[in-house]
Amino acid sequence: AFYKEAEKRYDKARLATEALANAERRLMELRYQQEKQMLVFQRLAEVQRQIRDDESLWIGDRIKANEKLGRILDQQLQSELSLAKEVLNIARLRKVAEGSTTENLEKEKEAQLKIYEIQERITGQRSEQLVADKALRKEAQKQRDEDAKARMKQLDDELKAEEEAYIKRRELKRRDQEANILQDEAYLDYIMSQGDYIAETDL
Which of 55, 43, 120, 57 lies closest to 84, judged by CA? Predict the structure, then answer.
């Protein structure tokens, strides 16, 4: 029974050692890939932040940039977590292969803390992005309200101008009519006066 138990422990340790070697190879590849990815994520995130914070740009473009920033941060979180989880996996495999030494337990604890640290950091950046999103949408609504107010004022001004033009046209028409009436009355007075003159001459 003792030998069987020892053999089981040996097989378990051997398998863990093999898994550890494979995991360490994967970790090296992941670290290389992530170093490149992190540079890309940081560059893309900074570009989107600059667009978002540029007040000279259209508010819609700034909102889209902030949304892209959120997606970049999510991708960055997944990339960093994949590496951190692999480090944790290696720490646990090493603990199985080599035993629960103080050093191995400490490495496992450090790997767990690294995961929490990444989640906390990205969550903080995500919170800043969400606050910015709320502020930008509030600004966009304010801009829409101001635009609507400006359009209403423009329509009101146009209606007033049209009304004033109509009143002027009506006044001019009235004056023309009065002038025509006065002209007709003057003509009639002239005709009547000519008729009286002719009558007096005949006498």
Answer: 120
